[in-house]
Amino acid sequence: MSAPTIDKEEAWAAVAGRDASRDGAFVYAVVTTGVFCRPGCASRRPKRANVRFFAGAEEAAAAGFRPCKRCRPHDDGPSAALRAVERARRYLDAHLDETVTLERLAAIAHLSPFHLQRTFKRRFGVSPRAYVEARRAARLRTRLRAGEGVLEAGFAAGYGSASQLYEQADARLGMTPATYRRGGEGMLIRFATAATPLGRVLVAATSRGICAVSLGDDDDALESSLRREYPRADVRRDDGELTALVAAILAHLEGTGEPSLPLDVRATAFQERVWQALRRIPYGERRTYGEIAAALGRPRAARAVARAVASNPTALLVPCHRVVRADGKAGGYRWGEERKRRLLRREARVVAARKKGGTHGKKGGTADDDA
Q: In terms of domains, do 234 and 165 share one?
C-alpha cells in the first residue's frame, strides 16, 4: 500500500502554528538537528528549508532521524501538548467554583500561558474562559430542570456570587435563570407567520431579539413547535408588531438586504462560534462542514460542526443552508433537504443576476422558479 500523500504547505502551516490537532497525521524532521517531532511540538520552530515531512514515526526513523524527547512522536498516545491541555481541562472541570487565571492554569499544564491558550482553543474550539462559562451554564441548566432553587443551583454549578450568576447565566440561557427554571414562564414571545417562495415562515421574538425563524408548510405546525420549545412562556401571535422583522427577513430571502437583526438564542460556546462563522458566509456562497471546522481551528471537528449547524433555530438569519457536503451535495437541513436545495439555487440566481446587471425581481424570483 502506498504511503499517504502529504500536502506540504498545509503540513508546514500546522508546524508553524504548532497545531496539536494534526498530531498523528504526520511527523516532521529537522535536517540540522536530526530530530523528528509531532506537528504540535512546543520546541523551537525550525526554518522551513530545514524541514522534511513523513507519514509516520517509522518512516522518519528509517530515514535516519531520531524521535524528539519532548513530544515523543514515536509513542502511540496523545502528544505532550494534548496531554497538557487535557490536564488543564480536567482541572477546570474540578474547579468550576473558582476563578482560575490563565497563569495558574498554565502552571498546571506545564505550558506557557500563550501556548496553553492557543492549544486549548485548537483542541476544544473555545478558550479556557469560554469553556468554563459553557460548563457552568450546562450544569446550571441541568439543576434548574431538576427543580433546584436558582441560587442553590447557581452556586452548585460554580457561580461565585448572585451577581455573577445573573450577569453570565442570563446571556447563556437566553433568559433569567428563574425564568428558565419555570420553562420560560413569565417570558413573552411574540410571533408572526408569512408566505414565502419556500413555504411558510414563522418569526418569533422576545424583548431581547429574534429567538426563532422556522420554515415549513403549515402555520399550526410551526406554532406548535415554538410552543413545545417554550412550554410555559406566554406565546402570542402579533403580526402587527413584528411586521418590520418579517419584512427584513423576506427582503433578505429576495436578495435585497442583509439584515443585522438582534438574536436571542440559547447556545453552547462551540455553537456560538459555529453560528458566527455561518453569518460570515457571503450571500450566494457555500462552505463545506470541513471548511467551517478548519476556519475554527478544528479541522477534525466536521461532525461537531454539522451537529451545531443542525441545531440552529434561526433559519436564514444564521444561514446554515450555505453549508454543504464535501462532495458538493446539499446535505441535510432542519427544514427539509429539498427546501435547502431551492434556497441555494435561488441565491445562485440572485448573484448571477447581479453580475449581469439585472434585478432579482425581473430575473425570475418567483416560487415557480424554485420548484
A: no
- The CATH code of the domain that includes 101 is 1.10.10.60
In a domain, 264, yes or no: no
Residues 20/40, Cβ–Cβ less than 8 Å: yes
Q: One of 37, 41, 68, 211 is an active-site residue; which one?
A: 37
HEC sequence for 50-109: HEEEECCHHHHHHCCCEECCCCCCCCCCCCHHHHHHHHHHHHHHHCCCCCCCHHHHHHHH
Residue-wise pLDDT tens digits, 118-127:
888 877 777 8
The structural domain count of the chain equals 4
- Is the entire prediction scored with pTM above 0.70? no
Cell numbers standing for residue 45: 520552530
The verdict on whether 68 is a catalytic residue reads: no
Whether 16 and 96 map to the same domain: the answer is no
Catalytic (active site) residue 41: no
Residues 193 and 175 placed together within one structural domain of the fold: no
Nearest to 134 by CA among 271, 321, 274: 271
Mean pLDDT to the nearest integer, 176-186: 52
